[in-house]
Design a protein that fits this description.
Oligomer: single chain
CATH architecture: 3-Layer(aba) Sandwich
Strand content: 5-15%
Shape: globular
Number of domains: 1
Order of helices and strands: HHEHEH
Number of strands: 2
Largest sheet: 2 strands, parallel
Length: 122
Amino acid sequence: MMHGWLEHFGGSQVQVRSAGIETHGVNPTAIKVMAEADVDISAHTSNHIDEYLAEEFDLILTVCDNARESCPVFPSSTEQIHHNFSDPAKAEGTEEEVLTAFRLVRDEIKEFSKKLLSDRLV
């Protein structure tokens, strides 16, 4: 969801790569709740962080404590920002309760992304 929001708000001013320490595919519920906000992430992929170790980045974002602790070491010149969001994929309950969990995290990520980009883009 972060990838979708960063591209949505950053447009051509940003190049986003998204990866994790495990690959699970893009969660269909994430796709659904992002579509509700008119952001299409249906073509996104689930990549492993190892695919990007040779690339240089201006900024590395980690969005859960587990990823932060397990993230490989990137060059020291790469700034890293961490913000722990709840993992909505771990939500339990009815379909509506799970959707509500995803929507809450979607909206938290949206606000974080807007602020991050407004602080960094001229």
